[in-house]
Amino acid sequence: MKDAYTTKGKSTLVLCHFFLPFSLEFVWCTLNFKHGHTMGPPDSVAIPPAKFSMPVDSEHKATEFRLFSIAKPHMRAFHLSWISFFSCFVSSFAAPPLIPIIRDDLNLTATDIGNAGIASVSGAVFARVAMGTACDLFGPRLASASLILLTAPAVYFTSIASSPISFLLVRFFTGFSLATFVSTQFWMSSMFSANVVGTANGLSGGWGNLGGGATQLIMPLVFAVIRDVGAVKFTAWRIAFIIPALFQTMTAFAVILFGQDLPDGNFQKLHKDGDKPKDDFSKVFYHGVSNYRGWILALTYGYCFGVELTVDNIIAEYFYDRFDLKLHTAGIIAATFGLANLFSRPFGGLLSDVVAKRFGMRGRLWTLWTVQTIGGILCVILGRVESLGSSIAVMVAFSIFCQAACGLTFGVVPFVSRRSLGVISGMTGGGGNVGAVVTQLIFFKGSKYSKETGITLMGIMIICCTLSICLIHFPQWGGMFSGPTSNKDFSEEDYYLSEWSSHEKDRGFHHGSLKFADNSRSGRGKRSVASTTPAACTSPIHPSLASDSL
Amino acid sequence: MGTRAVILASLLVACLAQACDGNVLFSSLSRTLVVEASPTAGQVLKSGEDKIKVTWSFNGTHSGKDTDYKTVKVKLCYAPVSQKDRGWRKTVDNLKKDKTCPHLIVARPYSSSAPNNSFEWTVTKDIPKATYFIRVYAINASANEVGYGQTTNKNKTTNLFEVDAITGRHTSLDIASVCFSAFSVLSLAGFFIGEKRRAKKSSPPHM
């Protein structure tokens, strides 16, 4: 079997996917460098000046985002998190491009392949929620490294799979590693301040998701090299799986050795020193699941990220069957969908931050609804177009809007809860996978709908589910169709401190939320910043916060 | 009305052009060759070891002639039971899109008499585990199929044989997988213990 890629095609692809994001990032970094200090919240007077190499806020979160730096701890955390998440995506979607070989070796039927595809995304549904809680309790560094090292065996065992059942099992357990998404978002939300958190989340999430596209190029190449060295086809694919497994293991080591949970140190050390009170699992969980906004975001994320996972699993086969393409051509087109994550998801995060500067949280919600709905419309069109060229064009446009919506979602998530940030991130992330499972079960299993009809129906479902964003309302900032609750003069502190009981407040557990509330005042948008009295910014809270030891 | 007629006409022309353009339909071919192969019905062959001997000859009772046969292609084809629920092995009438016979055993110039009308082939290691039959296509000078013969009947139900494929697994690979997995889990345990020790050392226990 010949696996030849034209170098011309590959270099064009690389050019397109690298030129745009670097120009975007250059513009963003330049803007931020000039205006960073005036736009961000005021620095606390209590910080020793030389401790961090980047400007930080009162929680020691970075207020700037410098892509090309690996400065400890903020930017280093960013690079560690996106690379480890990327490796998990590479492993989870390493099988689809090699399916034509694997299905002959293991004697799989189309049903077996479909079931394995569903299994690969269903494991992470609960793993993401569990991961959210683990991050809240143990910190993202240990939580993510543990998950990655515990799922690496599943990838190694893919090499020795010998039947449809064992294949389904290894794909199922490998898919658990997609829960590192939650630790990535949690880590970024802990390291970066409100004005850049959308960008940080979008970039780390997007560049991680990139793995789903990169693997469609990497795995066939690794397979071809091993086969050309002399291995038989049915052995070469098995050896090829060692590569993503080793990569995954190495990134976990890097996270443990070089990473740090919070700007001030690691969870365990901070717990022991008393700087960070150890929180109660049941309370954290309760405050997460009782916040209705988390559930709405879980639903809508299921129809941007869930759709993205579904398309990752079915799009190569769709182009292969409908347009009678060669396997590696279908693979390259499939890779394009995932590779758009290089810029489209970060762009969503960036857009969220840019809109929030002027319009605050209401702007973030409106932009999310608009972008995701346009994605749904493009999905409907994708199922209806007849020619190859227009299908590719619509698919690329669809991928950009769908992935930007993912980035925009995580521009909203950090503000839903402070105490239960991990649980909310986990619910949203888990909701993404539920969307993938449900969509594949309803529209892409068996022969009830042709793939084209399935894609159109999926687009209609995206549009309907996205409407639920209209229901999100923050009392201190408002919602899509309503302003902030005017009668109570509800502030950010009131919202975030409502998660702590007065007993806990007496013991000072809520100080982290207090700092966050102050830093999140950008949720009001530009119009309201001028009306915010100086007293709210330099409030009497600061002197007591300066004495951090409890 | 006018546009619809134009569209229909162009579709018809396109279909005819397809047929002329080398898109041969299997249903248009006659079974002009007699093909015999060494595997008996139900025999299981081991890939990489066992051999298949194929012999083909022109069917004398057929009315046509074999003068335009230039080459023959001997192919290993999937039986219907191995095509079930596997869309990538689907039988399609248009031979360009047909996926029933993806494995080429040999292609050689046409000859109806011994010794050039037979071939012995060792089942290669990339043949998957499935049920098969053998088909031979006769091809003319413009590379279009003009006749065929096969070892089974029209419905592909008789005289089928199986191939038992290699798994591709090796003991060394099994051992490597287990060792690497154990290493991942144990190193995680090691890190946890190291962290606990370091945390205990740096901050002495509170009274």
From TrEMBL, chain A:
Cellular location of this protein? Endomembrane system
The UniProt entry, under CDD domains, shows: MFS_NRT2_like
Give the GO terms filed under biological process for this record: nitrate assimilation
Does the UniProt entry include the keyword Membrane? yes
One GO CC annotation, please?
membrane
Q: How does it sit in the membrane?
A: Multi-pass membrane protein
> InterPro entries from the entry?
MFS, MFS_trans_sf, NO3_transporter
Which sequence ranges are marked TM in the entry? Answer: 82-101, 142-161, 168-187, 207-226, 238-259, 327-344, 365-385, 391-416, 423-443, 455-474
Q: Name one Pfam family in it.
A: MFS_1
- Annotated spans, Disordered: 513-550
**Which keywords does this chain's UniProt record carry?**
Membrane, Nitrate assimilation, Transmembrane, Transmembrane helix
UniProt entry tagged with the keyword RNA-binding:
no
Gene Ontology molecular function, alphabetical: nitrate transmembrane transporter activity
Chief location category: membrane
- Which family does the UniProt entry place this protein in? Belongs to the major facilitator superfamily. Nitrate/nitrite porter (TC 2.A.1.8) family.
Q: What is this protein called?
A: High affinity nitrate transporter 2.5
Automatic annotation (TrEMBL), chain B:
Q: Where is the signal peptide?
A: 1-22
Membrane spanning stretches: 175-194
Q: Which GO terms describe its biological process?
A: nitrate assimilation; response to nitrate
Carries keyword Signal? yes
GO MF annotation, one: nitrate transmembrane transporter activity
Q: Looking at the UniProt record for this protein, which Gene Ontology cellular component terms does it annotate, in alphabetical order?
A: plasma membrane
Q: Which UniProt keywords apply?
A: Cell membrane, Membrane, Nitrate assimilation, Signal, Transmembrane, Transmembrane helix
Matching entries from InterPro entries are given as:
Transptr_NO3_Nar2
Task: Describe the function of this protein.
Answer: Involved in nitrate transport.
- Entry similarity comment: Belongs to the NAR2 family.
Known PANTHER family for this protein?
Answer: HIGH-AFFINITY NITRATE TRANSPORTER 3.1 (PTHR34806:SF1), HIGH-AFFINITY NITRATE TRANSPORTER 3.2 (PTHR34806)
> What name does UniProt use for this protein?
High-affinity nitrate transporter
Question: Which species is the source of this protein?
Answer: Trapa natans (Water chestnut)
